[in-house]
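Re: duplicated header lines in exported C-alpha cells

Our pipeline writes sequence and C-alpha cells for each protein into one text file. With two proteins the header for the second block appears twice in some exports. Here is an export where it did not happen, for reference. First protein block:
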Amino acid sequence: MNSESASLIALQPLLMKALQGDQQALGLLLGEYRPWLRLLAHHQLDGRLAGRVDESDVVQQTLLSAVRHFGEFLGTTTEELAAWLRKIHERNLLDVTRKHLAAQRRSVTAEADADVGKIADPDVISPSQRLLAGENGVRLARALGRLPSDQALAVQLKHLDGKTLAEVAAVMDRSQGAVVALLHRGITNLRRLLTSEQPGESGPNHVSTSGGEHS
C-alpha cells in the first residue's frame, strides 16, 4: 500500500459539506463509493451480459446521475446515502439489462421481471451481495480499492466470487502458494484499513462529470 492508502477517510464530514452545496466535497464523496458500486455491478449484472457490458460504464452513469439529482437526496447520513445510491444503481443495472436483452429479441417483460427479482428480492441475493450490503459493504469495497491490485483481486476472487484456491491460481496465473501469500497479505491489510478510518477531506477517487474512470 502507498501512503495515501494508510487509512480510510471519514465520509460523514464530506456529506455534511456536500449538503451545504460544496461541489468539490460532493465529487470526493461520491468517488469514495465507486469501488462499492463496481462490485455491486460485478455481482448483480445478468451473467449473460458478461463481456458485453462494461461495469465501469454503469458505475459512471450512476455517479453522474447522483451528481445531477443530489438535490433530491433527503437524507443526512452516509447510510442513507448508500441506500439512495444503490437504488439509482440498481435502476441503471436493470435498464442496461433490458436494453441488451431487447437487442437479442428476447421477451423483455419476462426477462426484466426476473432481473428485478435478482436485484430486489433478498431471498435470491447471494452471500457476496449480502456482504456488500449497506455501510459495511461500502467500507469493505473502499478498503479493497486501497489494496495493491494483486491482493485485491485475490481477495475478491476467493472471498466475494467464491472461487476455490485452484481456480484463483488459474485466473491469476500464479501458483497456489503465491495466492495463499497474496490472500494473507490482503486480509491483513484489509483488517488494518477497516480498523483505522480517519477523518479527512480528500481521497484518491473523485467523480468526473465529463465521463470516464478516475482512480
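Second protein block, exported in the same file:
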Amino acid sequence: FGVVLIEIITAFKALGFSRPHNEVTLASLAVDRIKKNCLDEIIDPSLEPNKDAWTISSTHKVAELAFKCLDFHSEMRPMTEVAAELEQIKNSGEEITTLSLDGSNYSSLSIVHEKEMIKEVKNNESDKTALFDSMNSTNDKNNLLNHAEDQ
C-alpha cells in the first residue's frame, strides 16, 4: 500500500531500472528521500506541490503514511490508521479556504455555489427576456391583426 501511495505522489513506477542501483525500487527511493527530508525532490510537479498550504501539507501527510506502510516489519504497518488518516486528508480538502482579493475569506465551495447561482440568475433573466420578447411579438401580431380588422 505504501508503494501505491508513493506512486500517486511521485508518478514514478514501482520499479525503475533507469534509476541508480540502490533506487531501483520506488520503496527504496522514497524511504531514502523521506529519511533525508528531501521528499520534494521526488514529488510529481504536476501536483503543483507548492500551489498552496493544503497541497503541501496533504502531500507530505500522504508521504508520511506511505513511509509507515513501507516499514520493514509487516506488523508495524498501521493499515487501519492509514485508511483513517487518508479519509481525514480527503475530508480536509473538501472545504478549502481561499483568500479573495479584498482580503476576506470564502470557502471554495461557497465560491462554486455563488457561481452556480449567478449562472442560474443569468439563465432566468435570459428566459424572462425571451418570454418578454415573445409576448411583445405576440402583442404586436395581435395589434396588427386587430388593426387590420378595424380597417
